[in-house]
Amino acid sequence: MDFDLTDEQRLLRDSVERLVADRYGFEQRRKYAAEPGGWSREMWAQYAELGLLGLPFAEDHGGFGGGAAETMIVMEAFGRALILEPYVATVLLGGGLVQAAGSAAQQAEILPRIAGGETVLAFAHTERQARYDLADVATAARQDGGAWRITGEKGVVLHGDTADTLVVSARVSGGRRDAAGIGLFLVPAEASGVTRRGYPAQDLLHGAEISLHDAPATPLGTPGEGFAAIARVVDRTIAALCAEAVGAMAELHAMTVDYLKTRKQFGRPIGDFQVLQHRSVDMFTALEQARSMAMYATVMADSDDADERARAVSAAKVQIGRSARFVGQEAIQLHGGIGMTMEYKAGHLFKRLTMIDKAYGDADHHLARLAAAGGLFSEAA
Amino acid sequence: MDFDLTDEQRLLRDSVERLVADRYGFEQRRKYAAEPGGWSREMWAQYAELGLLGLPFAEDHGGFGGGAAETMIVMEAFGRALILEPYVATVLLGGGLVQAAGSAAQQAEILPRIAGGETVLAFAHTERQARYDLADVATAARQDGGAWRITGEKGVVLHGDTADTLVVSARVSGGRRDAAGIGLFLVPAEASGVTRRGYPAQDLLHGAEISLHDAPATPLGTPGEGFAAIARVVDRTIAALCAEAVGAMAELHAMTVDYLKTRKQFGRPIGDFQVLQHRSVDMFTALEQARSMAMYATVMADSDDADERARAVSAAKVQIGRSARFVGQEAIQLHGGIGMTMEYKAGHLFKRLTMIDKAYGDADHHLARLAAAGGLFSEAA
Amino acid sequence: MDLNFTEEELAFRDECRRFFTTEIPAALREKVAQGDHLSKDEYVTTQRILNARGWAVPHWPVAWGGQDWTPVQTYLYQDEMQQANVPAPLAFNVSMVGPVIAQFGSEAQKKRFLPRCANLDDWWCQGFSEPGSGSDLASLRTTAKRVGDKYIVNGQKTWTTLAQHADWIFNLVRTDPTAKKQEGISFLLIDMKTPGIKVRPIQTIDGGHEVNEVFFDDVEVPAENLVGEENKGWDYAKFLLGNERTGIARVGVSKARIRRLKQLAAREVAGDVPLIEDRRFREKLAEVEIELKALEMTQLRVVADERRAVKGKPNPASSILKIKGSEIQQRITELTMDLAGPYAWPYTRDEDEGSNEPPVGPDFAAEAAPMYFNYRKVSIYGGSNEIQRNIIAKAILGF
Amino acid sequence: MDLNFTEEELAFRDECRRFFTTEIPAALREKVAQGDHLSKDEYVTTQRILNARGWAVPHWPVAWGGQDWTPVQTYLYQDEMQQANVPAPLAFNVSMVGPVIAQFGSEAQKKRFLPRCANLDDWWCQGFSEPGSGSDLASLRTTAKRVGDKYIVNGQKTWTTLAQHADWIFNLVRTDPTAKKQEGISFLLIDMKTPGIKVRPIQTIDGGHEVNEVFFDDVEVPAENLVGEENKGWDYAKFLLGNERTGIARVGVSKARIRRLKQLAAREVAGDVPLIEDRRFREKLAEVEIELKALEMTQLRVVADERRAVKGKPNPASSILKIKGSEIQQRITELTMDLAGPYAWPYTRDEDEGSNEPPVGPDFAAEAAPMYFNYRKVSIYGGSNEIQRNIIAKAILGF
């Protein structure tokens, strides 16, 4: 057991931290948010140059061969800086699905282009009635001659507005909530039959509602056997979101402690009040517990035991959701009015943390999933 | 709307408070606890003299004609003093059931004897498998010639060890968890076929496990139609227990605040620490919210609308359970070691509060009951 | 002890309910129910309907339009107004500056300001908070220097709610720079159209624009706009802040919101099951309902005590109302956001009403997260919950 | 970064597990699992088995029986011991007085006391707390006056755990009455059989007898029983209190308790449904499991940091372990009591084991409430959770 970073990991961390420190200040971020789709092409090129866009891919595919730990390092730094670029959508979700489900040829074609920053992907999966149920897919894929066509409605597609390629889940067979029979398909975003309604989200990331009407599609892997890949990639993505949340919480906690030490009222720093000290201690405890669970999810995210992996990831998502809500609410409360203004970073961290809870299942959803699976300490010691 | 006490109610409150202040100090209570069955016959006689034992009964039956509000006043004072006598078992449960289900003749015979302090009753109802489900009754009553005989196992019977008369619920017809078909019966505690195993409880009240084997029984009201009376009387008893809990919480909170003001550490009263002040404020808020709900349950306890009554009582029991747990735990924590000793009243208040949660359904049970019934604000305004 | 309302009280309640639900436009009340922001016109419309009925300023002196109601009547009026989603008369007018002018103002000020104040002919805003003052209000630095028959005001106010609509501002200013803290402060009424006043919007994290900074640069204010005596402004501010503490719990608002949340949860499905049938969600709802019912009873107890209360001296128990009331309001916004699920994420709030695009996701979802973000304020403003705990510790528990 | 244990670490863990589950009597471990109190003999038996294996005092200097393990090995040893429900070696001996004697004692003291300490031939208790001292330990008043080659000790200690079993007590005493607070305190070893010592039991609300008052009335103590220098006792006490902070989380104990609770919940029914299938109960359990897993990871992080830590200087992060560890332990007792339901109420704890009456209600129920009551102590003793928060605020957050 070793919590130390390897030399390579330390290098990775240092370079990502330096990049966001230099190029992703709060004011700079405001400018990036105003660009089309709400993110910076220039930063995207920077990530490519640093190798971040190919981080989890094999070296053959222009990647870095990194695992969940490397992703954690990057996502934590991204969380502190509130990065807006489509990293999760393209690298973790899109790239992850190509890795997990695509043919060798598809991988060889697409992954290098992701790593090079030449393509932006989005995962069009969630449907309105599904809420957080990954297997609830009504969108249908049918074969028309040799070609596949997809019809259905996808929602809250992360960066679905600026992606050039959509990875779309669609049902090839089975009932609406069956895990079996779900296929993954590649659909060019500009293809006929694809209608996108893009929007900014609460956290300034972007999303889209996407209608598909007989849209032409290429199967990613074997049609109808996509669910295992979806489950695996979503679990990994959740672990990455946990790391992002830890970064955001750490930044928010540090800002709060700093504010308490510098903000004066009644002639002294408000941090002199024991009540506020203890409350920031409770925030710290919540943060450290969250950090521990993000590490746990990271270790387990690469597990091939789908049940064990899912339980660990659910547990982490619950902890992150609870800690983030607590840390976020307390941070705003301890800041007072200033924490509620758009001009100050704390409120933005709070909003992103709030929205991470809503991504791929909130704390209640994952608590139910974990409890139904028998909890964490089920086996004999 | 008027929260003021009537002159009569004020008189009642003053006399009960005076009685317990004079006769029910913590040291006196210790002596009473050492008497047979863990309670004082002398105090019992005092209650009778003051009219407390007939409080809810009609004047014709030697009573006072009091309602739920009068019971609340008495129970709150009893809660502060941690009264040990079988008031709930005899007056509220036993007497309440005779009132609610008994024939005119039975009422005329039994109620005056309760009011006079001549008899002690207990309600033998709970069965092990039933947990908190009032309708889960396996104990069976059958007619043998003209006489009724009861066979079954009853548990956690409050004051079942010293009662002379048991009110026993037993099934006349229907399935084990049907509300229909449950009858109420009077069984002399010393009758053949009755075996009692008495014990003290965590809160120094007493209880018994009772086995009935063809025990001779007299129907209280119409056999098989007892459930409505049970539900009504248990709801009223819960409202009374809520008031008792408010008394105990108020006493515990006052002791804690007093301790914080007098206990010195690091050269000053520990109550100077803002953290401890705020925590005692949160206890106070929990107490006052509990007091409000005890009043609400009191008002609703006399309602003939069984559904409305049950929802109000469940809501109050949840609030009391949550407040009592919070106030109790915080009181012990803020007291430190002294709060954990048998020689100090705080720990006893904490224990009684803990056990009130376990009587007739804990907070989780009543939350589920309330939620299943549609909550409190279901109708249009 | 009788916790039921009297026949007269019930009749009054019904009268309130009837009036609010028939006389105030339904579309406007529906906007309130949904958590939409109201336009200035909508506030004005509502308050004038209430004022025409004599119900805009019931707690004012009868001579100036008050109603001489019992505390229970005032409670019922507020509760019914809130439950019917009627926007309350503008607090800055009716609960803040109005009572101060009525109590401490000159006859000329009363005549000039009070009727317009009640009818929302003048929209008032509050110039108390300053950058750096926070809960330590008395540390304010905005100055007013007496020159002839004028005051020259310089400084900055902040968190000024709806200053963008305001015709007038009531301002705490430092008139004696040598005096310490609470002393040397005066209460000044300032026309927002006076040259030298600049209003700068503060955008909040929900995307809304409720609060502002207000800058005063050599603003000339006629001396006749001083309320009461010079350097006694702190007393008037305390009087103002001590008024009207029971409405603060906003029990009626929360009741309306819970009922709406239940309707939404009956509609919104996960898989094929309405969320209202999800046990955990239902129990979370029931938990808030219990807290709210308890708070309603606590509020009624405070109302009942008001008969015995000293006028203008706030009941410290009202701090409980503030703490629990804000927690419950926040919790309801949280549950609403949880109900919206993944659709809490898109930011599709429609500020200019003109759009006819269908909503993204469920129709309530667009407001769910913004309202959650916005409602963090209710435990901060009006004396933060930490300040309320200090009040209870000192005034009730005797620390 | 590799959060998996190495092959060597796993082998060591298995060795621990095998030893604890085969060499320590199962009946004794079952008593621990049930929360029963152990007899003095049972503690002694266990510790001697461990000591025979060289595992009673692994963290002591190797010369006195220590093992020179890595922090990870120490962690695994503790965790496996706790999970196997093995009672830990008596903390007063192995974690408190032993390390102090080994570090600061004379050679004669080491030879005389350490082997007997490790083997539990002498049972030690701790004479630190006094009535009125609480968290302000340095305010102690028990005096030791040097007369010739003896100290005459007068005063009173309290909360003295298991003093009823003790052969020796290590006592903080005031040797310089003129010095201020922390100064003038000495660390004295006292034979409990010395005339003038009286032990009075304190009964706690769970009905148990774990703690005592200890009175000293002109107790004569040989001067050779002074540890280190006179008036330097506070340093030794700080050293003692700073030792052994990771075991404080008691993660292994909580793991064992959660597994047992799940087994019980699978047996206990409401109606005809096992409580483990009640969604609310199951989710409450899962919530504690998550907290516990997080704490386990936090503990491993602290363990990993220990390699870099300065010896004897406690990691302030261990305060998190104390706070969360105690909260989790308490929460598990709460859930166990909730599981017992109405049968948490009877007090039928069997102190003298002799009885053959069947249990009242479920067999675990008799201990459920007493354990809940008893475990309130874990957030009070060893530096209350309030003190731990002060430590974090100061040492980590820099307030």
From TrEMBL, chains A, B:
Keyword annotations: FAD, Flavoprotein, Oxidoreductase
Task: Recite the lineage of the species.
Answer: Bacteria, Pseudomonadati, Pseudomonadota, Alphaproteobacteria, Acetobacterales
Which cofactor does this sequence's record say it needs? Answer: FAD
Question: Where does the Acyl-CoA dehydrogenase/oxidase N-terminal domain start and stop, copy by copy?
Answer: 6-118
Annotated Acyl-CoA dehydrogenase/oxidase C-terminal domain ranges read 224-371
This protein is called Acyl-CoA dehydrogenase
Among its keywords, does the record have Oxidoreductase?
yes
Instruction: Please give the start and end residues of each transmembrane region.
Output: none
Annotated Acyl-CoA oxidase/dehydrogenase middle domain ranges read: 122-199
> Can you tell me which family this protein belongs to?
Belongs to the acyl-CoA dehydrogenase family.
The protein's GO terms of the molecular function aspect are: acyl-CoA dehydrogenase activity; flavin adenine dinucleotide binding
Keyword Cytoplasm assigned to the entry: answer is no
The highest taxon in the source lineage is Bacteria
InterPro entries in the record, alphabetically? Acyl-CoA_Oxase/DH_mid-dom (IPR006091), Acyl-CoA_Oxase/DH_mid-dom_sf (IPR046373), AcylCo_DH-like_C (IPR036250), AcylCo_DH/oxidase_C (IPR009075), AcylCoA_DH/ox_N (IPR013786), AcylCoA_DH/ox_N_sf (IPR037069), AcylCoA_DH/oxidase_NM_dom_sf (IPR009100)
Q: Name the Pfam families on file.
A: Acyl-CoA_dh_1, Acyl-CoA_dh_M, Acyl-CoA_dh_N
Query: Which residue windows are coiled coil?
Result: none
Automatic annotation (TrEMBL), chains C, D:
Q: Which UniProt keywords apply?
A: FAD, Flavoprotein, Oxidoreductase
Residue ranges of every copy of the Acyl-CoA oxidase/dehydrogenase middle domain listed in the record: 125-219
Q: Which InterPro entries match?
A: Acyl-CoA_Oxase/DH_mid-dom, Acyl-CoA_Oxase/DH_mid-dom_sf, AcylCo_DH-like_C, AcylCo_DH/oxidase_C, AcylCoA_DH/ox_N, AcylCoA_DH/ox_N_sf, AcylCoA_DH/oxidase_NM_dom_sf, Mycobact_Acyl-CoA_DH
The protein's required cofactors: FAD
Any Pfam family the entry gives: Acyl-CoA_dh_1
Q: Name one GO molecular function term.
A: flavin adenine dinucleotide binding
One GO cellular component term noted in the UniProt record for this chain: plasma membrane
Span of domain Acyl-CoA dehydrogenase/oxidase N-terminal: 6-119
Q: List, alphabetically, the SUPFAM superfamilies matched.
A: Acyl-CoA dehydrogenase C-terminal domain-like, Acyl-CoA dehydrogenase NM domain-like
**Domain Acyl-CoA dehydrogenase/oxidase C-terminal: residue ranges:** 231-397
Q: Source organism's superkingdom?
A: Bacteria
Record-stated family: Belongs to the acyl-CoA dehydrogenase family.
Protein name (Swiss-Prot/TrEMBL): Acyl-CoA dehydrogenase
Source organism of this protein record: Acidisphaera rubrifaciens HS-AP3
